[in-house]
Amino acid sequence: MLRLNSESAGTNRMTYTIASSKLGVIGEPFIPADGINVAALLEGGFIVEQSTPKAKKPAKTSTDTNEEI
Amino acid sequence: MATSTYLSNPLVTVNAVDLTDQCSSANLTRVIEALESTSFGLTARVYVGGLENSTLTLTMYNSFAASETYATLKALVGTQTNVTIKPTSAATSATNPISTLTGCYLETLPIVNAALGALDTIDITFTGGVYSVAVA
Predict the structure, then answer these.
(1) For an interface test with B, which of A17, A31, A34, A37 has the most B Cβ atoms less than 10 Å from its Cβ?
(2) Residue B3 lies inside a defined structural domain of this protein
(3) Scanning A29, A55, B50, B89, which has the fewest C-beta atoms within 10 Å of its C-beta?
(4) Which domain holds residue A26?
(5) Does residue B30 belong to any structural domain of this protein?
(6) What CATH number is given to the structural domain containing B120?
(7) Are the C-beta atoms of A12 and A3 separated by less than 8 Å?
(8) What is the Cα A4 distance to its own chain's centre?
């Protein structure tokens, strides 16, 4: 089964913010280290998910390359 | 002479959450499984080191309040996580090394351990994972 993550799907990139002083300074961004169970932190209310809108790609413009001779 | 006395300040984190104020006992044991390699001609059993299987056992006060014991552990059962422990909450150093089990497994979580007139405490054990120690 092909699985797309949010980044490759071209939507949003997830970042996390600390919501509990047990984890760090509330409001600071949280960058999970390898091995940290992010789902458990979300479920426990220790962090909140924030979606950062990805920069929009410029609109594609079609160029007619078939020049008439 | 006793040289390591724990009065109040060991630091314990589970899945990066500081649970020091809910923990009353911690026992980190490094285990490397013994594989017997005794052969004919020897007069005593001999062993070589196998896979590492370290454990961290914590005794914790059970709290169902926000950001406390239950909130931290409830989603970790049956999954891997990281745990750390160091002798004091002071900066990590050669005399205050921080030990980490990365990718250790929590198999069981007691939900309620009720006894009349006593605080609810639970014992949990994290097993396996990669042991490392840092001094800075």
Answers:
(1) A37
(2) no
(3) A55
(4) 12-53
(5) yes
(6) 2.40.30
(7) no
(8) 12
The residues near B86 (Cβ < 8 Å, ≥ 6 apart) are B10, B11, B92, B96, B97, B98, B99
Residue B6 lies in a domain: no
pLDDT above 80 for B73: yes
pTM: 0.81
Number of structural domains found in chain B: 1
ipTM over 0.90: no
Question: Is A37 a domain residue?
Answer: yes
Is residue A7 in some structural domain? no
Rounded to 5 degrees, φ, ψ at B56 are -125, 120
CB contact under 8 A, A40 and B103: no
Range of the domain at B105: 11-134
Residues A8-59: tens digit of each pLDDT: 444 556 899 999 999 999 999 999 999 999 999 999 999 999 876 666 677 7
Please check whether residue B81 is in contact with residue A37, taking contact to mean a CB–CB distance below 8 angstroms. yes
Contact list in A for residue B14 (CB cut-off 8 A) is none
